Amino acid sequence: MSLLSVEALLLSIQGTTILRDVSFAMRKGEVFGLVGESGSGKSMTALAIMGLAPAAATLGGRAMMAGQNLLELSETAMCALRGNEVGMIFQEPMTALNPVKTIGDQVAETLIVHGAANRAGAAKAARERLDRVGLHGDAFPLSRYPHELSGGQRQRVCIAMAVALRPKLLIADEPTTALDVTTQAQILDLLKGLVADEDMALMLITHDLAVVAGMADHVAVMQKGRIVEQGETGAVFRERTHDYTRRLFAASAHQPARRPIATAEPLLVADGVTREYRLPRRHLFGAHPRLTAVKAASFTLHRGESLGLVGESGCGKSTLTRAILGLDPIQGGAITLGGQQVTAPDVPPSLRARMQVVFQDPYGSFNPRHRVERLVAEPFHLAPAPVDERRERVALALGEVGLSPDDMGKYIHEFSGGQRQRIAIARALIVRPDLIVLDEAVSALDVRVRAQVLDLLAALQESHALSYLFISHDLSVVRAVTDRVLVMRAGEIVEEGATEAVFAAPRHSYTQSLIAAAPRIPAQWQDGG
Amino acid sequence: MLRYALARLGSLAISLVVASLVIFAVIEVIPGDPASYMLGLNASPETVAALREQLGLNGSVPVRYLAWVAGMVQGDFGTSYTYRVPVAELVAARLQVSLPLTLYALALSCAIAFPVGLIAAARRGRATDTAIMAGAQLGIAIPNFWFAMLLVLVFAIGLRWFPAGGFPGWGKGLWANLNALTLPAVALALPQAAILARVMRSALIETLGQDYIRTARAKGLSQREAVLRHALRNAMIPVLTILGLQFSFLLAGAIIIENVFFLPGLGRLIFQGITQRDLIVVESVVMLLVFAVIVVNFLVDLAYAAVDPRLRRRL
Amino acid sequence: MSWPVTLRLGLTLTAVFLAAALVSFVWTPQGVEALNIGAKLKPPGAEYWFGTDHFGRDVASMVMVGARTSIAVAILAVGIGIGAGVPLGLWAAARRGGWVDEVIMRGNDLIFAFPSLVIAILITAVFGPSATNAILAIGIFNIPVFARVTRGGAISLWTLDYIRAAQVAGKGRARISAEHILPNIANLLIVQGTIQFSLGILAEAGLSYVGLGAQPPTPSWGRMLAEAQTMVSFAPWLALFPGLAIVLTVLGLNLIGDGLRDLLDPRLRRAR
Prior knowledge:
A: alpha/beta; globular; B: 79% helix
């Protein structure tokens, strides 16, 4: 007897079909994984079941739970069901909580709206649920506001809210995507524990195959609004009968073909780099307190090398990157590029031209009002060239990143995320730099597009003798594309070494915990297909 | 919270000092000799000298500024040149008309705008919303003094429900005075209510798109409960900003509207001051108006902190 | 892409008044300065479309010429606001958190404490009333409005990666502000500009109504209303037509502002 049975679910918005023929069943107390790339319809499936799909959506099919078709229940009946029988948590914990209400009120509200407790009883239950999700009373009184908590803590509050009435089903929509890897591991553990303790079913929606592999009993793979393959998790992972599943797997474990070209010649040298910020004054006339974001960081990047820099959010890697790029002054130590000192903010153009950068966000990286030709040509500001030559070199760079010279006349909104990252790479290449800083450059891309961009980067490194500083929070990507790696934590570089050596035998306890926390697909599932 | 309040208080003090410097400079320094300006071209040198003495204009500029500020702090705004009475008395009498009028209009504006904005947001995109927004669009475009004239034409001259102007004075009982202030307050409030309703609607619609509303819905709150329990308080933040601005618009509007209804308020006082070149009166009333606006902004800042816990820690 | 209905309606209304103002330079139904006591206080009719005032002047002609004053004052006031406010806002955003930003924003707050009527009162008390004073008073009040809108828009852009890319390409703050920031907040400024334009027309009417704006013999809508006030019970047309002219012009401009906002909203555009 299944808890929830979705049959031939269909959803369309103004004539565009978003979901078609989605069918699956969930049993009591099991974890059901729904995986797919962005836009595959996984979140919409969950919203449709919850009765929270956009008002313009037309629904078809059935979603049966306890003998009722959820798609046909009245709004009043759905309100009684949501939060009571079915709980849901979302991707972005930073915005999922009301900023002007205390966490206690928000958890207690679940009980109050369902008439399950009076005010005092609800507060008591809220306390108990917050304790259960690991936010204990001494450090997290009910009177705390969301802005006083970290992302992981906020996600715990959301979970407490969703399970306050012990629902039979919890839907978690990318619950850990916005979190760091160690926090992700803790949240996943918490969810697993809740499923076991409370005999609750969990629908885990994610784009990350490794997360599903470690969590789900059954899994369904979605593509373009339909389920292409489903079954017992181990079986699906081992057999991969559908072509799409196979490609998804190949991409997530993708290892670009790289031939190391690293030399022993130092290119970028950071020597005791310290970066401090002034914080707002605590008192009206007091001195500004200082925050040291990077503490005496030292490392060397050799010509032709791919150097990884990993760490969790807030560890100082972005700050260090800004200092290396000569955008912010440093308060101690020195940065040299090819023997010349980088002194922000007045870095000589000839020196700036030797290093370029590719950023994370494919949407915010380009001025939407300029054509691709002007976007790619921007670094010529550093190394002026005649107009004819510029055009030629822009065309050449676009060709090198796999785009057509005809794309020069287009605006950026005409390109997909992956194409935009290619244009960003072309912009970095245009002044023929020695070093390209890749600041989370593939983090926003879906796995298959990411694999293609990684291949491109590997090929360009070889053909242009480039050096990369590869900054990422994603350990598997860093492992796949770097020669050496630096691990950063709380402003300090805690470990440095050859990538394989560090990953195989991490010495520092922090590196060990990072690697242990990273979800992975069991090795015995990987060699099939 | 206390630290936040103190910081805002500090910035209030700085604003007041700078504002008083500006007003003092415009009135007493830029004209050169205020005394001869006030008396006009035909005044004899002796009269000018006497007025200079009376106004204390013989000191240096910094000394005069400090004396002016010190006087104001003690409630002494100087003596009106035309009325021959202390300006403080004049202002106090006129405030009894202008302040109730402004507050009456503010209350009306909120009473109209809040429900209307809420209904429009709740019925977003439907006929009710379209009608309300069209009405608001028209309301914003209407100059309040012209609207006041139309109100007089219809409700005072035509229907005779309200007096066409004048003010009986608070000694004559509350009802007669409220009656006299109703048409002016409505004229002031309606265009402002139109603006406020639009802000209310868009702030609510913006908040309704936030993630925490979806979270609340997933907890089992109906759309209505989600609006009342979660969206409303968050939407108050931009609404407060506009309310603060509205106070100064209403105050300025009251000055104009008083002309339509022959109300003996600050507006009448200041325009008489201008025509009779009574700079002392103008200076004091302008300082008072600016003081009111700055204090209201301070109160709005405190209200922000009451609504939004994130502000309480920040300086 | 089709234009919103509001935008078309707004453009039509505004075009009518702009045309009236322009035509009044070469032609009006009657002379506006000629007094004709014989034709005083005529109600609207075939000869005098909007009636005549107590001097026998043609209201329709005066409304046409009055449009010139209103539009000129409002445009110049918006010009002052943009000319001073936009550079200040850009500068403050480029130096966000620094003392320049602090000084500019505090200065803005200070000007906000002086409603344009109060500025007009101050100026008039010392220099006497004139249309120039009205322009100055409204224009000064517009400065912090544009500075805030500019700074707000610019600050959100400064966090974007294309600004960092431009910095990596060695471009300075001033150049980035001109090349990357300004074009991308132009939409905001155009919308705000139409709103301030309409507010300027309202403010000019209010100032001339209380005698702080344009002086006789320059016709202006606000002063026509002031003169009509004592006669409103027996000659309502004197108040009706100038008032309607204000309402329709302001409405037209606001509709343009709203329509442009819908048309230019990047969130709507991305969904295209």
